[in-house]
Amino acid sequence: MAAVDPRRTSSTCPVCGSKLRENGYRRLKCHRCGFEGNRDHIAILNIERRALSILHMGGSEILSNALQMKDVFTNRCGEPMNSLRGTLA
To answer: Which residues form the Cas12f1-like TNB domain (predicted)?
Structure first.
């Protein structure tokens, strides 16, 4: 996992890096290369690219103590349960 600065991720073209312009509701278009997409999707692409760049370069922003994903089973009340027996954990 890498810490990424989210500034300008939804307004920068993920293909050529130029500034995007509005092209409808939450849609942006690059007038340099023609790329077009949803603002949120564009931000995801740019954040992913930045994170991969940081990780590839072995940047100091790598978070070795990041939270780990794990399965959590809950009952109807939202209480955690033992996944094997269906009892409270």
So the answer is: 3-47
81 and 87 in contact (C-beta within 8 Å)? Answer: yes
DSSP letters of 9-38?
A: TTSB-TTT-PBPEE-STTEEE-TTT--EEE
Give the Cα separation of 68 and 80 in Å (integer). Answer: 17
**pLDDT (mean) for 13-40:** 94
For the stretch 48-79, what's the b/e string if a residue is b when 16 or more beta carbons lie within 10 angstroms of its beta carbon? eebbeebeeeeeeeeeeeeeeeeeeeeeeeee
Global pTM reads 0.59
Handedness of CA 78, 79, 85, 87 (dihedral sign): negative
Question: Are 42 and 6 a contacting pair, CB within 8 Å?
Answer: no
Express each pLDDT in 28-72 by its tens digit. Answer: 999 999 999 999 999 999 999 999 988 877 654 444 444 445 556
Hey, where are the domains in the chain? 1-89
